[in-house]
Amino acid sequence: MKLQKFKLIKGEFLPKDSREIMQNVFSGKIQFHNMKNFSSQERYGKDDKIAVKRIPQLKKSLGKIIKMIEAAEKNGDQLEIKSEVVIRFVKPVKDV
After folding, report:
1. Where are the alpha helices (DSSP H) in the chain?
2. How many CB atoms lie within 10 A of CB 22?
3. Which of 30, 38, 43, 95 is the most buried (most CB within 10 A)?
4. Terminus-to-terminus CA distance in the chain, angstroms?
């Protein structure tokens, strides 16, 4: 099957709404990785390497986005936000 694209977010938003949307999206991803890491710790006694790496990256990105939203708020601007989900089938990586 070929690549599929889905629009997740598309529009112009007030800073207040932008903050809520972005915090919800990023919080969901952070929570997902926290749960993956917790599960790995409980099941295998070790951290999930991907989750441990990804959580601070997501938090840093959200921090930058919040600063942009604050700047828009100060300037009386709205924010245009576009987000797309791209999905394609890939073969799993074989353990070596």
Report:
1. 15-44, 49-75
2. 21
3. 30
4. 27
Dihedral sign for Cα 39, 88, 12, 79, please: positive
Q: Give Cα 48 to chain centroid, integer Å.
A: 17
Tokens describing residue 90: 């890939």
Contact call for residues 69 and 15 (beta carbons, < 8 A): yes
Among 26, 21, 15, CA closest to 68? 15
DSSP state of 92: P
DSSP assigned state of 94: P
Tokens of 82: 């576009």
Share of the chain above pLDDT 90, in %: 92
Q: What is the pTM of this model?
A: 0.87
User: Is the predicted pLDDT of residue 96 greater than 60, yes or no?
Assistant: no
C-beta of residue 82 within 8 angstroms of C-beta of residue 10? yes
